[in-house]
Write a structure and sequence with these properties.
Layout lengths: L5 E2 L2 E3 L2 E3 L4 E6 L4 E7 L3 H20 L2 H17 L1 H11 L4 H24 L3 E3 L10 E9 L2 E5 L7 H12 L3 E5 L6 H12 L7 E3 L4 H10 L3 E7 L2 H11 L3 E5 L4 E5 L5 H13 L9 E7 L3 H13 L19 H16 L3 E4 L3 E2 L2 E2 L2 E4 L6 H4 L6 E7 L2 H8 L4 E2 L1 E5 L3 H10 L4 E4 L15 E2 L2 E2 L4 H7 L1 E9 L5
Parallel strand pairs: 1-5, 8-9, 8-11, 9-10, 11-12, 13-14, 13-21, 14-19, 18-19, 21-22
Antiparallel strand pairs: 2-3, 4-5, 6-7, 7-25, 12-24, 15-18, 16-17, 20-23
Length: 481
């Protein structure tokens, strides 16, 4: 992408359309307007749903080999334009160019996995004769599409999280309406273009941009919408759940992820993993490391090494190869993080490094002695700040790890398999990474959390199952002669 401002259309049932009302897309690096996208109206949403209803029949009628072909062609189209996608991610969002390239590669993998899952989507035979009186019955179940899905995605992974909605939806034979984050819609439009070029029938996919306060209710309450797949904050997730009515919900609502470092851990590995896990994408990552509990025998050594590594982190221009971390998505978000840190410091927290803001940039920050009652301990920071705490033993670390409303993923560093399994059994999370930080995920694994971290699981295979339903078929046979 260049610095020239562009006018971007939205995809309405396979047709690119404009609107008189627009929303600015702003590069957080310098507050430059790089694009204008349509501000969809309620009427636009109603039209998208009407088209989507027709699209459900078209999508369901696609054969398995057609779904595989479309998904494979879309992945190939993206792969040939890898640099374009990476530049778009880096330009409109917070990620550095190196982080953006990784996201593009993951997106390609997500869509290829979706093609594989389209092939593997099947049912099983059922032994009806297990019940007395049913000896003359045979049958099976198979999975059928759920119908029209609304996918609402955040800014922090503007390409791959959209792929995690569209890919499984198509693999399962559904139609889908995507509402990307208004601050990072360009990657979603590029992904939609890939599917159009791959031969996806027009009415199967819409990607619309607009203000949630204006169009959100129509998207989530319309009775024709049979599932909402949402990734975002807890408050928005709760509001959707209250309004949605009788439809399926899949929600990934963030976290406040803990990591535990025990005395027998490889400190070099732990420091590197936790540094990356804390500051990847400027800390705007639902899996990002937020709280670290370090056993007292290594607390001072670990803390010194982590601070030294954090001070080496290079903050600056997202498009430069040497940059490790860019800005937050808006200056408003950087100010929010600044407030959280300052409030914690007023309560007695110590800032070992960072703690400074420049426009939308907030320096990588390490805090210690943070009171348990502080907001920054209890809530999701969603910024480049990590909290360190000294513990005597594993049970104390587990208790503190579980003492929040979230439970997405966690990490533990130890070479003692018994300690690892104690953590596995006792930590209230949807995933636990051994000798890795909480910030580890592959796109094929089940992904989701407990408590207020969400409902259901993503990860392509698991998303396809969420987006389909089992139908039972039973034959009563005539008496054998």
């Amino acid at each position: 992408m260049t610095s020239t401002m562009v006018m971007q259309s939205m995809l309405l049932g396979g047709e690119w359309v404009t609107s008189e009302r627009t929303i600015d897309v702003i590069d957080p690096k310098n507050a430059e307007v790089i694009a204008k996208v349509p501000a969809a109206s309620v009427e636009d949403v109603k039209r998208a749903i009407e088209i989507g209803i027709e699209g459900t029949k078209i999508a369901a009628s696609l054969s398995t080999h057609e779904r595989i072909s479309i998904l494979t062609k879309a992945a190939n189209w993206i792969e040939k334009r890898h640099d374009l996608f990476a530049d778009t991610i880096a330009k409109e969002g917070s990620k550095t160019i190196r982080e953006a390239r990784k996201e593009v590669s993951r997106c390609i993998q997500t869509i290829r996995l979706s093609a594989e899952e389209a092939r593997r989507l099947h049912g099983e035979t059922i032994s009806f004769d297990q019940m007395p009186g049913s000896e003359d019955r045979v049958g099976y179940y198979y999975r059928f599409p759920i119908g029209l899905i609304v996918a609402i995605t955040p800014f922090n992974d503007p390409l791959n999280l959209v792929a995690h909605k569209i890919g499984p939806a198509i693999a399962g034979g559904n139609a889908v309406i995507v509402k990307p984050a208004t601050v990072t819609p360009l990657s979603a439009f590029l992904l939609a273009e890939a599917f159009m070029e791959a031969g996806l029938p027009k009415k199967v996919l819409s990607v619309i941009t607009g203000n949630a306060s204006e169009i959100g209710d129509e998207l989530v309450t319309h009775p024709a919408v049979r599932m909402i797949s949402f990734t975002g904050g807890v408050n928005a997730g709760e509001a959707i759940a209250k309004k949605a009515g009788l439809k399926k919900l899949g929600m990934e609502l963030g976290s406040n992820s803990p990591c535990i470092v025990l005395e027998d851990a490889n400190l070099e590995d732990a420091v590197e993993a936790i540094t990356s896990g804390s500051f990847w994408a400027a800390g705007q990552n639902c899996l990002g490391v937020q709280r670290v509990y370090i056993q007292e025998g290594i607390y001072e050594t670990f803390t010194n090494q982590l601070v030294a590594r954090t001070k080496q982190y290079r903050v600056g221009d997202k498009l430069l190869e040497e940059t490790d971390m860019g800005p937050l998505i808006t200056e408003k978000e950087a100010i929010r993080v600044e407030r959280l840190v300052n409030d914690a410091r007023k309560l007695g927290a110590t800032c070992l490094c960072g703690g400074e803001r420049f426009s939308a940039y907030y320096m990588p920050t390490v805090l210690t002695n943070v009171p348990a009652e502080s907001e920054i301990t209890r809530e999701e920071i969603f910024g480049p700040v990590v909290l360190l705490d000294c513990v005597k033993e594993l049970d104390e670390a587990i208790e503190k790890s579980n003492a929040v409303q979230y439970g997405l993923q966690a990490g533990i560093f130890t070479n003692d398999i018994n300690q690892a399994f104690r953590a596995i059994k006792s930590m209230d999370v949807g995933g636990i990474m051994i000798n890795d930080s909480s910030d580890y995920r592959i796109d094929a694994m089940p992904f989701g959390g407990v408590k207020q971290s969400g409902l259901g699981r993503e990860g392509v295979q698991f998303s396809v199952h969420e987006m389909t339903e089992p139908k039972v078929v039973c034959f009563k046979l005539s008496k054998y002669s």
